[in-house]
User: What shape does this take?
Amino acid sequence: METSGLDIMMQAVFWGMVGLTVAGAWIAVFPRNILYNVLGLALALTGIGALFVCLGSPFIGLMQLLIYVGAVCIAIVFAIMLSRPMHLEVPPWPPSKLAMGVVASTVFFVAAVSLALKTDWTPSPDRVSDTSLWSVEKIGEALLTRYELVFEVISLVLLVAIIGAVITAGFSRRLSP
Amino acid sequence: MNNLSTYLIISALLFSLGLQGILLRRNLIGMLISVELLLNAANLNFMAFNRFLNADPVAGQVIALFVMGLAAAEAAIGLSIILALFRTMHSINIERAQKLRG
Assistant: This one.
């Protein structure tokens, strides 16, 4: 009886997080004001981080919160403040373009959902109930032994991206009158 | 806790919302936000498959970390391009960025 109450509460928390994610994604796409879009993106990313925690990986959830909500969203807000208030120059969407976008994304959604429901996924039996293998130590050990190339390559990619961002932003200042 | 299809449907919903945004928006920052939504939907798929199907428990998490790093790099480059475009064009509506058109 105790465990079922806990289970119901966990389900409620899960569906609350799902609602938060979908509402955030809705806010991130549809309102005209770009600042609302960024705040909706932050909400959706927080919800996805909570879903990662629900999936049993709090480390990736924390990384999601740190990298996306803490860095990427703040960088986007920074770029918005450096350029002009852009919600003034957004024209209303033409209805033909809106209809085509809605049709394309609806077709994709129906295709993906039917694919997910029709396929017979056979779960790995030792993974469904097991959560002990998900420790941070395992991830760290794998990152430094088996997936070390991934680690090195992503460090290199981030370094090149930082240098490229500095050069792109700096050269444009020199070139513009 | 829940089964795999729940996560797959949530991820498909997020992906189609992001697709909608990237097809509709003409604002570069709005398109960047939609790209972040798409990457997160893919990430959620990777984590769900890793949780329920994969025998190796860390492969999906390493992929998720890799996608997060690539998204951070993409956001940095994209925002610097947006700033450069705004300085030269005084607008970030991508339909006005036509200097390379023949």
Notes: Chain A touches chain B through 88 residues (CB under 8 Å). The helical segments of chain A are 2-29, 34-54, 58-82, 95-118, 125-128, 136-144, 148-175. Chain A has a mean pLDDT of 83.
